[in-house]
Amino acid sequence: MTDLITTINLAAVYGLIGVGISLTWGGLGFLNLAHGVTFAASLYGAWWAQENISDHASVIFLGGIVVGAFAGAVVWLSVFLPLDGKKNWDMRSIIASLGLAIIGVNTFLLVFGPQRKAIEYLFGTSKFKIGGSTITADKSGAIISASVVMLLVVLALVKSRIGLGVRALTQNPEGAALVGIGRRQAAFAILTVSGILAGFAAVLLSQIFYPEPNIGYLPLLKGLIVALLGGLGSIPGAVVAALLVGATEAVTAHYLDQSWILLTQFALIAVVLLVRPRGVAGILEVTRA
Amino acid sequence: MRNSLLSVRSALDTAFYGGGLALALVLFFFVYDNEVFGGHWVLFCLYASINLMWMLVIGTAGLYSFATIAVVGACAYVGALVSGGSIAGKELESARSLNIVFMILIAAGFGALLGAIVAAPTIRLRGIYFALFTIGLAEVGRAIVKQHEVLGKNSGLFGGARFLKADQIATETGRTIHFFVGLALLVFCLLVYRAVDGGRLGLLLRTVRESESVARGLGVDVVRARFAVFLISSAVLGLIGGFYSGFYGGVSLTIFDFNTLLLLLAMIVVGGLGSAKGAIIGTALLLFIDRTFSDIDTPAWRLVWIGIIMYGITLGTTRGLVGIPSQVRDYLKRRRASRETGGGAPAAPETSGP
């Protein structure tokens, strides 16, 4: 039972990061390697809000989310706008985002120093029991809030006009352009929403991933694993992949050791991708191959 | 016209490599006198060699593999292990079981084996999926080393075969040996690059890169061509891993550092993807910045500058520093065309397309 809760907890949070990466690739053909820095920036934003405004959970969440959205907008402004439509867009956008990530991480190091910062428990320290297993408020809070946010993203994609545009871009970029869907506006929406999701995930993981300059690397890797396993561009695929990744992580930590986690996750990737080269869903083979 | 263009290009190549060799010989005097400079030279030769092999995969074959550092690191560990390396060099000299030549050959063989393993998914995986599949391999290497006592865990594996005898370390003789061994490695990698890129295999790989279906239609054995390039480049990367261990007398976990992978990627992107000259120019420029800023009080500035250069060059150029002349030529051609048509022709900005 405890493993199951840990699995769902990790899956919920990794899912948020993976969906951001997946949406950006699916909609824009852009693999945003600055997503890890967005995660780190959000953690610093949450910590700053806690230190300077209030240590109330809502303020901390808001701090992380606002900074995450801002970081997404910075990526839009500094990578998407100057390079979209230019020669070698796919490779150059990856490298530019990598450059941005290097600048970001080291700027954090210069400004905040290498020391870890601490963020308060957001859902309190209480515990309760289900079927003999103890569940912390932090885990259950993370699962519920991440699921709600994920649901809101799906609803926004299905119901809103901009969501319709994003889905059109994901399925057929040329067709979307022909019917007048603004690529720049859609890109802005995708990157800021990805930033918000990364910010939300960062705050939810703030008891495991403390604010420090290099902290975004591992979440980026996990997000990439989720997005890749799910099939880049597919939200249902990312959700299934997040569950798979979370389960692998929980089971590995329980039966082997923490240090085996990446190995088992890469073994999982190898098996899934060799069976289904475009991941769990892989709906975008035609448009984004 | 085409022939004269080719001869100009060939003359420029000769000038570049001739000038580079002359510059290297001038640098020898600095290396001879200065231990720190000697260390920089070794690092330059190692990084430039790695980048040349990486360029074959990422540039010529167009396969976004990030397994480079993982292969070099794994082979350096194998080299250190078979030549008697142990944790923090405790059994120095006495445990040495293989001399450096055999150690390097074994590392190269292990590299080829790893190349075959990394190449296998290319049969099924394409583009970004393959990139993501390989991007975490260095982390896997780090995790394996951390779990095994025999690989030195966090302390590294030292005391293996090296190019210098104990009394030659930090001496003029030692620096001279390192200088020429490094130069020989770099020249060897350049020759391999030219043999593959300029040969039949390079032609096949470029055809596959441009259009896999056309290549298959022409009868190109795509799987075989990809396996060949991975085997060759990984064997040489393994050899470089053996040299790495030979230069430093062992290896530690830092070789799998993600920042090293980023730095190497920055080098080939800044220099220019798909060109040996790009790999060398990018390596020299970024290593210069990296080393210059690593000596100051706040080394984080070093990576900030590298990030700024990487970002700026990616935004400003289509093919890195070596692509600037052709970009300027294109611009002038467009401007001339625009003037000839009385400003009517579009002075097209850089856009995607053929």
What report would you give on this structure?
- The complex is a heterodimer of chains A (289) and B (354).
- Chain A is mainly alpha-helical.
- Chain A is 73% helix and 3% strand.
- Chain A has one domain: ABC transporter involved in vitamin B12 uptake, BtuC, CATH 1.10.3470.
- In chain A, a hairpin with a 2-residue loop joins strand 1 and strand 2 (133-136).
- Chain B has helices at 2-33, 35-60, 68-82, 100-119, 127-135, 137-147, 172-197, 200-210, 212-217, 222-248, 258-271, 276-294, 300-316, 324-340, and strands at residues 86-87, 157-158, 250-251.
- In chain B, strands 1-2-3 form a three-stranded antiparallel sheet.
- The radius of gyration of chain B is 22 Å and the shape is globular.
- Mean pLDDT of chain B is 84; it is low at 91-95.
- Classes of the chains: A mainly alpha (289), B mainly alpha (354).
- Chains A and B meet through helix 3, helix 4, helix 9 and helix 11 of A and helix 5, helix 6, helix 11 and helix 13 of B.
Characteristics of this structure?
heterodimer; A: 289 residues; mainly alpha; ABC transporter involved in vitamin B12 uptake, BtuC; two-stranded antiparallel sheet; 12 helices; B: 354 residues; 2 domains; three-stranded antiparallel β-sheet; 14 helices
Layout of helices and strands:
The complex is a heterodimer of chains A (289) and B (354).
Chain A: H1 2-28, H2 35-52, H3 57-83, H4 89-112, E1 127-130, E2 133-136, H5 137-159, H6 161-171, H7 173-178, H8 183-204, H9 217-230, H10 235-255, H11 261-275, H12 285-288
Antiparallel strand pairs in A: 1-2
Helix pairs in contact in A: 1-5, 1-6, 1-8, 1-9, 1-10, 2-3, 2-4, 2-8, 2-9, 3-4, 3-8, 5-6, 5-8, 6-8, 9-10, 10-11
Chain B: H1 2-33, H2 35-60, H3 68-82, E1 86-87, H4 100-119, H5 127-135, H6 137-147, E2 157-158, H7 172-197, H8 200-210, H9 212-217, H10 222-248, E3 250-251, H11 258-271, H12 276-294, H13 300-316, H14 324-340
Helix pairs in contact in B: 1-2, 1-7, 2-7, 2-10, 2-11, 2-12, 3-4, 3-6, 3-10, 4-10, 7-10, 8-10, 11-12, 11-13, 12-13
